[in-house]
Amino acid sequence: MPTATSSEKDRLEFITVAAEYCIFIENSVSTDKQIFIKQAVKYLPTLYLKTILLPSVVDFPEEESERTVTEAEYENVRVSIETLLGTDDMYLTTFHPEIQYSEAPIAASISEDLADILQELKDFLFNCQLGDEDLLSNALDNCLYGFHQHWGRKLLNALTALHQLQYNDDKEKEEQDEFLPPINATSQKESFLHHQLRDDSDDL
């Protein structure tokens, strides 16, 4: 059985991770918020790594691949994530194409970032399923060009915001635990014995 070359292996791994990301995002509506955040900060770095292992495409491809994700599908995903994250969906970033025109950080949205990534990957995966090598190669070039131009940045911005949410929540839980009274096993035992002695005396 022939083995895949390094470039073929990297492409197959990218396709696999892209498909897993799409499934994860589309199932976000039925996910708990904290579980979603923890899973997202695992998927996004893996997706970024598998993407940069592929040859970089910095020039616009000669042919644009077929787009299949509709505006309604995109909006459904975006709204689902926005609803799940609530007020935590918005974040401020200085890494934005329009930052040169602003004196302050620009507001961005995790749900929009993740939906944009999903749109790029689903369009790519659709072309993969057609079974034509030329279409696959062209779709991959378009996807990688999009990564270079916008969705790679969106991925990192969303990851930064989600990282902040995950570890801020952990820190808040630790701070809440600090205000809980310590459990004293000795005092608990004495209290229990005192209660038992009082019950025994009542029975006399």
TrEMBL record:
This is DUF5063 domain-containing protein. It comes from Microbacter margulisiae. It holds the Pfam family DUF5063. InterPro entries: DUF5063, DUF5063_sf. It comes from the Bacteria.
